[in-house]
Amino acid sequence: MRLGRKGWNNVIIFSMLIMIFFLNGWHKQFLGGEDKQALQAVLPQQSFVLTLQFVDQKIERIGTSWRTTPLQKDIPLVWKASEQQLSDLVNQWQSAALMGVNESVVFNPNAPLYVATFELAGESMPWVYLLYKGDGQYYLLEKRSQRILALDLKTAQQLFPSFDFSQSESN
Q1: Fewer beta carbons within 10 Å, N or C terminal of the chain?
Q2: What stretches pass through the bilayer (predicted)?
Q3: What is the per-residue burial (b if ≥16 Cβ within 10 Å, else e) of 50-77?
């Protein structure tokens, strides 16, 4: 069986495509191995925060400024903040990038330490973040995608200023 010029061109084209396909997958395996844990933005890029709600208070955008209101009328706010501190808190959430972790993290999913709920412009459902502690480390679970992010005590204190971390450290 002899191939003509057109047949040989097809053989060369298909062999090059196969070679590219295998080399593309091979270099990822050779150089990268498994997907390594990488820093991930906590909130979606370019998100516009309308409200941030904790268990005890709601921080909402009023024009270009922020205000906080208690969610329980009888209990005073644990963390009273100026407008600048509220703006800084929202900016910390927007700029936070945390290390993604595997699903094999050990913490009790039924016992979150604290909750933060965001309403973002253009989103119909709120973004809910649960703070957990396990294996001597803090974790942030994003409910929508079930993504787990690791954070240290300092970052946890910055993102959840009204939570008393001294109680969780003693447990």
Answers
A1: N
A2: 7-26
A3: eebbbebbebbbeeeebebeeeeeeeee
